Amino acid sequence: MPKVSFAADIKPLFRDIDISHMKRFDVELDNYVYMSNPDNADQVLANLSAHNGEPPSMPPGGPYWTADQLALFTKWQEDGYQP
Q1: What are phi and psi of 2, to 5 degrees?
Q2: How high is the pLDDT of residue 2?
Q3: 49: number of CA atoms within 13 Å, CB side?
């Protein structure tokens, strides 16, 4: 099975509105160099995930990522942050 790539699999999951909204907080969802930093990727994943029954904080108001989308992001991390 091919490895998950940022350009083909992860970046398309972020809507233009998500990208522009998060740039105000210096979070560069469309920037591979930024997103391939494990600390940044972990923080983005944490914000995309529900916690203690509370909805995710990202994207604000939804639509929230599905379990499959979250698993794909995690697989990208496990695959070594392929470009």
Answers
A1: -65, 150
A2: 84
A3: 14
Short-list 76, 78, 56, CA closest to 66: 56
The Cα 19–Cα 36 span in angstroms is 16
Q: Which residues of the chain have pLDDT under 70?
A: none
pLDDT at 39: 98
pLDDT of residue 18: 95
According to the model, what pLDDT value does residue 11 have? 98
Separation between Cα atoms, residue 51 and residue 21, nearest integer Å: 22
User: Which is it for the CA torsion 48, 13, 65, 79, positive or negative?
Assistant: negative
**Is residue 5 packed enough to be buried (19+ CB in 10 Å), middle (13-18) or exposed (0-12)?**
middle
DSSP letter at 2 equals: P
Q: Which amino acid is at 64?
A: Y
The residue count for the chain: 83
